């Protein structure tokens, strides 16, 4: 069985994003970029499934600029077998990404598609669900535990009320949550081996997918500065403060 793992190049989670002076977007100049943390968890889970003998091949795929090759090389260094980059300098929205992933999945025929539940740059949390709808495949989102047994997958998923367990018939789509695993660090020998692993470059046109943005960003701004709180000594003082503020 093949496992397809989409990964995204985003601003490193340790870096505080800066808004462009004209408010048109986030400034990416000279900013450290890395693999989306949720996708890193998906790569780790795919590699663990392969190590357990549940899969024969792990394929990493990314949609983005040429520099996204670095992100794919990280996935290869972690243990993925080969990679595909669909190169596009435009901002590709979740629906277009889902259409491109469907086209790749139709060609590769993976038994499982593992991807992060969301990207930390846009927090859309849409691609996995859209892909499942486009492919008419069962889906398990926000997975904190994944078990494969023959032609089915048991997914423990985190929901507002606690945990929910669902059984999916393969092929299926699973999106990963933070508590699924702890991603490994790529060793130096594996980083060197990753340079020799196959990385194929494609374009959206190769798959017949239009990635023209359908959304327009009107303005990007820093979040408002939170005002400092104020301590009160008693409930009566709290009520008086609330009345003064006109909220009680």
From TrEMBL:
One Gene Ontology molecular-function label: electron transfer activity
Stretches assigned to coiled coil: none
Key word ATP-binding present: no
Keyword RNA-binding: no
InterPro entries, per database record: ET-Flavoprotein_bsu_CS, ETF_a/b_N, ETF_b, ETF_beta_N, Rossmann-like_a/b/a_fold
Subunit structure: Heterodimer of an alpha and a beta subunit.
Domain (Electron transfer flavoprotein alpha/beta-subunit N-terminal) ranges: 23-211
Keyword tags: Electron transport, Transport
Family stated for the protein in its record: Belongs to the ETF beta-subunit/FixA family.
Protein name as annotated: Electron transfer flavoprotein subunit beta
Required cofactor(s): AMP
Its biological purpose: The electron transfer flavoprotein serves as a specific electron acceptor for other dehydrogenases. It transfers the electrons to the main respiratory chain via ETF-ubiquinone oxidoreductase (ETF dehydrogenase).
One of the GO BP terms on file: carboxylic acid catabolic process
